[in-house]
Amino acid sequence: MSKKMIHTCIRVKNLEKSVAFYKDVLGMEEVRRLDYPEYKFTLVYLALPGDGYELELTYNYDQAEPYDLGNGYGHIAIGVNDLEDIHEEYSQSGYMVTDLKGLSDGAASYFFIKDPDGYKIEIVQL
Questions:
Q1: Higher pLDDT, 88 or 72
Q2: Is residue 55 domain-shared with residue 83, that is, in the same domain?
Q3: Which domain holds residue 7?
Q4: Where is the VOC domain positioned along the sequence (predicted)?
Q5: Cα 89 from chain centroid (whole Å)
Q6: How distant, in Å, are the alpha carbons of 17, 25, 59, 108 from that of 40?
Q7: Are residues 7 and 58 in the same domain?
């Protein structure tokens, strides 16, 4: 039996702000948008160019309060070839960006950026 990861879903409070973040800052493209007004929600699927794995943003029309991210969510990770240049670019974006970090054994170099809902995205040197 063949299996494949297809998407990760996160709930967002402001769909347009979130779509703008993932498109304008992280470079994702909108793959498709499904509106279900009768059920009061919209789904937007985004992916990095050339990557089949998608991020699903679920927008519930009547969500008034920010979502409680809880302590179970960790992060989404995106690999890049030019970590320092991307860090500089994202630092100018107006979103919260951490300093560049590295594991003590040299296994990884990375930083985090937060989206409009507070979800952490780890940017890792490939």
A1: 88
A2: no
A3: 1-62
A4: 4-126
A5: 16
A6: 18, 28, 9, 42
A7: yes
